[in-house]
């Protein structure tokens, strides 16, 4: 079966599809990405749809598709830290795979859709296309309102008080944060060894550093974690109080990682801590 493919319509259709798929991934991962970044990523992604005209081995077409997804992830979400990047890229890749598989199963024998090298061309009435866009836009607007209601930018100012001293920090709310206190169910916040050193709390830094050298002392709570980047054990200390949004949160564990954090955030935390002070 032959089909006439118009380059302008090919790029437009893929641009729109990319926009809604990236938007969906943004909603699922609660990344709070602005539309300018999504539009930019969608444009670059749509240019790769031109490979639909080429004949190439299936493994190569898959590699190109994965590269397109990774590039779109970088443009859309940035690279704040390794964990967030891997998580959001995996979500975006999963959304693309489900969408491509859905198209193939639904339209593999259709005269309206042409799929090659994991990219597609849609031959459809413009009025139907505009109507579908309107429905999708309303759907994602409602989804974003319902599931992305956390405060703008997810950034907070914390004051962390411990028996070793206190410090203020910029904190990032990561809905995919996976470090938990499974024994006592206390909320957990996490920072890096590098940041602890910058605070000037020498005693705190030393007790954490000694733990990672194998010297376990009283006052340290080991926390086990497992995520997309691997698994391991973190040293944590119990704080006296953490102040955020004019609220005092007690019984919070401060986990300290040997990995470096983004320069934009000193501390990250998850829903368990957010629920203690959020609306």
Please outline what is shown here:
This protein has helices at residues 7-28, 35-47, 58-77, 82-107, 126-147, 193-199, 202-212, 271-274, and strands spanning 113-116, 119-122, 155-162, 165-173, 188-192, 221-227, 230-238, 241-244, 247-249, 253-257, 267-269.
Tell me what the structure shows.
The chain is an alpha+beta fold. The chain contains 8 helices and 11 strands. The chain has helices at 7-28, 35-47, 58-77, 82-107, 126-147, 193-199, 202-212, 271-274, and strands at 113-116, 119-122, 155-162, 165-173, 188-192, 221-227, 230-238, 241-244, 247-249, 253-257, 267-269. The protein has a 9-stranded mixed beta sheet. The longest helix has 26 residues, at 82-107. The mean pLDDT is 80.
Secondary structure: elements and pairs:
Blueprint: H1 7-28, H2 35-47, H3 58-77, H4 82-107, E1 113-116, E2 119-122, H5 126-147, E3 155-162, E4 165-173, E5 188-192, H6 193-199, H7 202-212, E6 221-227, E7 230-238, E8 241-244, E9 247-249, E10 253-257, E11 267-269, H8 271-274
Parallel strand pairs: 4-11, 5-10
Antiparallel strand pairs: 1-2, 3-4, 3-8, 5-11, 6-7, 7-10, 8-9
Helix pairs in contact: 1-2, 1-4, 1-5, 2-3, 3-4, 6-7
| Rg on CA atoms, Å | 23 Å
Spans where pLDDT lies below 50 across 5 or more residues = none
Biggest sheet: strands side by side, in what order? 6-7-10-5-11-4-3-8-9
Largest sheet: 9 strands, mixed
Shape: elongated
Our measurement of the CA-to-CA distance between the termini, rounded to an integer number of angstroms, reads 57 Å
Give the fraction of residues assigned to helices: 40-55%
Record field, number of beta strands: 11
* Helix-strand topology string: HHHHEEHEEEHHEEEEEEH
Beta fraction:
15-25%
What's the overall average pLDDT, rounded? Answer: 80
Structural class: alpha+beta
Number of helices: 8
